[in-house]
Amino acid sequence: MNSFQYKNPTKIIFGKDKIATLKTELPADARILMLYGGGSIKKNGIYEQVKSALEGFQVIEFGGIPANPEYDILLEALQIIEKENISFMLAVGGGSVIDGTKFLSAAAYYQGEQPWDMLTSRQPILKGLPFATVLTLPATGSEMNSGTVITREETKEKLAMGGPGLFPVFSILDPQVVISIPERQLVNGITDAFTHVLEQYMTYPAGGILQDRFAESILQTLIEVAPVIIKDPANYEAASNFMWSCTMALNGLIQQGVPGDWTVHAMGHELTALYGIDHARTLAIIAPSHYRYYFDNKKEKLAQYAERVWKITEGTLEEKAQKGIEKTEAFFQGMGIATTLAAYTEEVVGTAQTIAQRFSDRGWKSMGERGALNPEDVEKIVEMSYY
Amino acid sequence: MNSFQYKNPTKIIFGKDKIATLKTELPADARILMLYGGGSIKKNGIYEQVKSALEGFQVIEFGGIPANPEYDILLEALQIIEKENISFMLAVGGGSVIDGTKFLSAAAYYQGEQPWDMLTSRQPILKGLPFATVLTLPATGSEMNSGTVITREETKEKLAMGGPGLFPVFSILDPQVVISIPERQLVNGITDAFTHVLEQYMTYPAGGILQDRFAESILQTLIEVAPVIIKDPANYEAASNFMWSCTMALNGLIQQGVPGDWTVHAMGHELTALYGIDHARTLAIIAPSHYRYYFDNKKEKLAQYAERVWKITEGTLEEKAQKGIEKTEAFFQGMGIATTLAAYTEEVVGTAQTIAQRFSDRGWKSMGERGALNPEDVEKIVEMSYY
Fold first, then answer.
1. Rounded distance, CA B13 to CA B75, Å?
2. Which of A1, A3, A11 comes nearest B237 by C-beta?
3. What is the pTM of this model?
4. Which residues of A touch B15 (CB under 8 A)?
5. Which residues of A touch B4 (CB under 8 A)?
6. ipTM confidence score
7. Residues near B170 by Cβ (< 8 Å), separated by ≥ 6?
8. What domains lie within chain A, and their CATH numbers?
9. In this structure, is the dihedral angle defined by the CA atoms of residues B32, B37, B40 and B44, taken in order, positive or negative?
10. What is the block-wise mean pLDDT of chain B (387 residues), using blocks of 10 residues?
């Protein structure tokens, strides 16, 4: 096991009808900016629940944060924060709204030239404007971590940043929100959380016996609850385990003391930036090819995964590892998620070269759990994902 | 899954040679009280490592905190805290030293008549004098939770208290400390952590699918590493997984959203208070009888545990559940831990009545995961544990 430091100060308030606790959790004298997305919260009743809990507080609203939170739109919110002396933010939404709020948290205190520089410089954010979240879409884990991913349409870029200053003060998780999530987003959420775990687990054996078992626990739980909530999002037991699994998949715990990969995300982000493909689906496109390409490096963990998560008991280590990849593809496909790029766009040719060039331009030459992934590898992996 | 609130702000610093990070983690201008136990840290080199890291800080030492931290001794430390204007405490030890330090953390701010009243009143502690820990004995999880158990020789009592004000600011976990732990304490630590998980898991099915799997992960890891570290405490991989498992067993995570029992501990504490039996061993004495007595209530979880943790695939649910109890006994016994009271004391007769009377005197009439355990049950369970 590697050495690590771990601290996660976010308070989780989990359960039925917990949105009302905003009343007591929010600082009474705060000037609050309430942020949300495209307006689905106005259709599913969450907006009313939040507004009702916010009665008596000083609140300004900022709606319209899109999926893949857009830099230019966030700059508008930043102006409001400055002009209105906002002292606390409340993100009501899924990963995009929460990630946008985190960017604003950092930007509110940023002293540099342009807030975008925070994303290219990759410096950890030590202090941010305090914020909380009401989670409406389980998927990204953003409600209990300190990372954010921001998109810039102008340059077709999608970049990550984070740091100990960007944890939510508290996050409210009411599994009843799952009832009103469209199936497309539900399966995206399952796929996203599942791949988050894989990025932290599918590397090489590193003596993290407990971490491995925790990761496998989340994968097994997602596999168990996926068909139940897709069939019946009102199943509270399945919804609550889905929601808690998504949070635990990326709140930092399972990555402590073990190597991480994250290059499936790096490549996937490019597919979203280039073609607007849903984030989760880009991961389902890239992951199988990535594991096939790095088979020799990852085969021990792939076989362990096949044995423990998918109960594959027959065959050599290599055969089990191979089965592990196939089972993963079948799991995504079984939820209606296509696992090739060609299923999403006709412009596949040249994509691999474009993405490899971008990695090269950014100097991303030693990525992945062994620092061995370079732009040439990226080109091959993306190409393998075409059809 | 039940509703829950979860927040754990303790920073974990985990790995080889991390004691030196005290230098940068401790507040520079603090007046520090360094607390430790019977002096084993002076033999195994940890004392020197800590003192070396503390150079330049204002430090007063208080050694001699015994296993089962004794109220009267802690009152002496409390006088030093007041007289010397201590602003930060550093516990260097295992669960007893850390628990003693937590009691002092609360007592330093306590306004009532007698600090013991904090233990009998069971009011949550909202604010304490800040403290950190250097863990020398993995077992109790006290390094990452906000609970403490204090013993009073005068009245032969052992009581628990806690609250959000009693989390360590940070805890340093260097698995290399395991090398110098005597085998007796090593197997106590494994048994203690194992039983902590059981108390939060061996109840009834409550829809905590992920929590169950996390609990089973810790149990499986402890079972896997136990023989390795008993044979070779210098095995870093086993030691680090043992250490992290003990922390995760009782840092609050696996208990969220599911019922807990904790009556094995309540009865076990009495055996320590009456006969001075090692805490972990009292749990090994009580747990099997407790599960046999409450078999009908716990059999579903016992069977799930037998299947998933011990890989028992044959038999009816009841037979599997029975096997689960037997496997647990065998696991303890295999480490040299006797599982009957008579193995520790000749005064078994009357013990059950004494303990039942104490529960009755304290008004503890509805304990356990269903609030159904009363003093009559306690009497029967303890009696079943005699031989």
1. 30
2. A1
3. 0.97
4. 2-4, 257
5. 12, 14-15
6. 0.96
7. A7, B10, B11, B12, B13, B25, B132, B133
8. 11-176 (3.40.50.1970), 183-384 (1.20.1090.10)
9. negative
10. 97 98 96 95 95 97 94 97 98 97 98 94 94 97 96 88 97 97 96 98 98 98 98 97 98 97 95 93 98 98 98 97 98 97 94 96 93 96 97
